[in-house]
Amino acid sequence: MAKILIIEDNEQNLYLETFILQKNGHEIIQARNGETGIALASETLPDLILLDIQLPGMDGYTVAEELRKNSKISDIPIIAVTSYAMTGDRERILESGCTSYIEKPINPDTFHMEIAQFL
Amino acid sequence: MRAQPKARRPNSRGKSNSGKQNASATKTARVKRVRPLAAKQFVHILEHINDGLVVLDKDWYYVFVNEKAAKMLQRDKPSDLIGKHIWTEYPEGVGHPFQLAYEKAMKEQKSIVFEDHYEPWDLWFENRVYPSPDSLLILFTDITERKRMEQLLKERQHLLQKILDTEPGTVYIYDLEERRNVYVNRHWLSEFGYTAEETQAMGDELLLRIFHPDDLEMISTHHENWKQTDEGDIREIEYRVRTKTGEWRWLHSHETAFLYDELGKVRQILGISYEVTPRRAAQEALRQSEQQLGLIYDAVSDIIFLLSIEPDDRYRFVSVNKAFLQATGLKSDQVVGRFADEIIPPSSQPLVFGNYKKSIQEKVPVIWEEVSEYPAGRKTAIVTINAVYNEAGICTHLVGAVHDITERKQMEEIVLKERDFSDAMLNSLPGVFYFYDQTGKFLRWNRNLEIVSGYSGEEIARMNPLDFFVGAEKEYIAQRIQQVFENGESDAEANFVSKKGERIPYYYTGSRIDIEGFPYLIGMGIDISQRKRAEEEKVQLLGDLKERVKELTALHATMELLQHDRGGTAELLQAIADLIPIAWQYPAITAARLVFARNETQTSNFIRTSWMLSAHFSTSRDDGLIEVAYLREAPPEAEGPFLAEERRLIDSLADMLGLHFERKQAEEELRKLNLELEQRIAARTEELAAAMVRAQESDRLKSAFLASMSHELRTPLNSIIGFTGVILQGLAGPLNEEQTKQLNMTRDSARHLLALINDVLDISKIEAGQLVILKRPFDMRQAIESALRIVQPLAQKKNLPLATSIGTGVSTVDNDRRRVEQVLINLVNNAIKFTERGEVSIECQIRNGWLETSVHDHGIGIKAEDMGRLFKPFQQIETGLARSHEGTGLGLSICKHLVKAMGGEITVESQWGVGSSFKFTLPL
């Protein structure tokens, strides 16, 4: 049972991820944009943050960087969820401070298992 | 013509009968009683007298003809004529003088004596015609012979006269009895100045006037001698005579007996005289000088002697001087009159007499050295012998002189040694040495002079110093020689001319040296031909050098001008034209002109002459010309007045100008081109920049598009796959079989769609060059397991076992895990797809430094001909089975790119109907 923060702007994606993780017994905190996500992260101090890279406004990289700036929450593993849209996405993800990444579309069968390793 | 002084007897006597008749006239006539002759006896006598006698009667018939007459008249006997008519017998006589004479005698009854030449017989007759009233007695004698003799005599006399008249000497015939010249020749007359008449008139008085009183006695004695002589030889006499004008002459006469009297004694003498006045005068002078000489004769210290030449090559001492007697110790009477062979030592005689003979024969003085042993010691003397000739050219005497040179000889020895030494020195001199007197007679010289000149010593002794020079140099040397004699010394440079005519440049020195008051020139000459040659070469070289410097300067100046040429072609050409005259060998008369591309310049004095040098040059656009002219008409030479270097210079200048202008034009064009180019480049760069920007923009757009596509396409699928998955997991509630079945189908399709999208996006990235390999170390085993997990369901569905065989060394790999998994998944998927039964195995080994991962299957395999198409995009290989395999056809192509991008290689082995093995390598 862990506290997981999901920062995702797509409703369906957010619903799906939340559904799967809740079904696996985890507490889910939802943020629909970067700023909210950052605020909630320092507020709730989750065990894991799932960060969508393709965010509107403040993009995922910036969020990750910001999250890492905060010493309080800098240890929290951040898993980026990405469509690999751009060249160099993966490096950027890691450089911005994410611990790892998961490719979209997620595999519902293995999703939980994949993130569980970081808990 | 002189009478030869040889004894000769005249071989003809003068004819004279009168002597004998006179003698007989003194005899007393004796009277005898005689009987008168009878007529018959008389006729008989008449018949036989020696003369021809004919008697003609008055009718001209022969009455009497004697034997002689008959013969003379060419009849056999007298009887042949008697009774015949003279003119009948001798018709040819008619009209002939004797016929006329006969008739005249008959008519005038006067006897006639005449001589007649009877031409028909070519005979002379003396006719004595004694007429009587009735008859004519003719006594005729054949006097042809006499006449002939007379004629001969006359001719001879005439000849003699002629000879005597041409005889340059005076000829006379002197009658000893009459004491006068009975004949003188023309020359005699002209010599003495008398005419023939005068001589006749004067008679014997003439000679008294002619002869010198002092000579009269001698002459008269001489004549007496003649009178006494009955022998006829030739006698000579010399005497003085006086001409009509009073001049005295000496005459030398040769006389011979001309006429004898009846006693055989000489009556007339024939003489020929020649004037010997000069000789007599000389003789007198000689006598006087002899007198003087006689004094000197005895005063001199040299031995002098006079020998007369005797027969049989003997010589007799005529006189000797005091010195002779002193030297020999003899007395005068022991020598004078003696033969030389009695006095001169026998051992010396061959040499001495040989020399005497030589002098006589060759008519030259003979000089020799004699060494004689005297009680006092050895003496050396120079003996000189001179032959003396009389006016006849006969050598009559020898004069000898002996000069003691003993002391001198000793000195000579010393001098000779010194001379040998100095000779050696002189001959060792490198040059020619000469020593001559003021007249130019060579007295000393060294061997070199002979060698160099080619003349022998004898020749040089006869030569003059000026003989070694020719032309104007002769004058020059003569002046120099004079300078030496006047100033004491001088020197000169002139050509030494050898015998062969070779000329060698020499340097001569001359110094004056006075010896015993006489000036001489002594000096040396050295061969300076080498120096001269060197000098000439130097001058030549210097001249050449100067010219070369001028030319080089011109070239250099031109180069400078060209280098600093800032555009004014006319100015440039002018400057070069002005440079040219100085570089040519005759600047004052050189003019230049340059033409190039409508520019024309020249030096102010330029005109065309017949002495032009020109050179053309051209660029690709224009033509140019350089002209150099000599302003004066130079005499034609084989090569013309321009030096070869000048021709080269003008060519060089032309070349330089050509190159320069070519370059200038090229530069101009280049500049233009450059400008164009720059402009075009700028434009191009702009274009490129724009294109780049566009490309970049395009790339960016592409990337944006892909990114967008990637994101947009995946997002819905996330929901589809996600939710179907979740539902199928039963997380949203329980499902019945049908729902499960249908949802599975949906989820499969969604997965398939996702695979398609991924492939398309991948291939797009690959095509756009945007595929990025992220190398991170990862665990290969885990990657394999991960991949297999994904494909497991598919394999399970087909009931195909998935076997793995992983080598022990396989662990960490530094590469892109995602892509490795992608490749593996693709290959296994294919394997599963194309295998119905059997096994699909995954093998992973480390081999040869590479990580080899293989996927083996027992599928249908691949045909050989399809191998080539395998990795190409959009290719699906038809297997002939009913079902076409799902897939985009991009999978293997993407695998190939990915493996390559990861630094490895992908290969396949397959056998149709058996199976396939796909292998990919990765670097470790």
Name the features.
heterodimer, A: 119 residues, alpha/beta, five-stranded parallel sheet, 5 helices, 5 strands, 20% strand, B: 924 residues, alpha+beta, five-stranded antiparallel sheet, disordered N terminus
Structure description:
The complex is a heterodimer of chains A (119) and B (924). Chain A is built from five helices and five strands, in the order βαβαβαβαβα. Chain A has 119 residues and is α/β, with parallel strands linked by helices. Chain A has a five-stranded parallel sheet, sandwiched between helices. Chain B is of the alpha+beta class. In chain B, the strands form seven sheets. Chain B has a five-stranded antiparallel sheet, with helices on both faces. The longest helix of chain B has 85 residues, at 644-728. Chain A binds chain B through residues 10, 12-13, 16-17, 19-20, 23, 54, 83-88, 90-91, 103-111, and chain B through 703, 706-708, 710-711, 714-715, 717-726, 729, 731-732, 754, 765, 770, 772, 774, 789, 818.
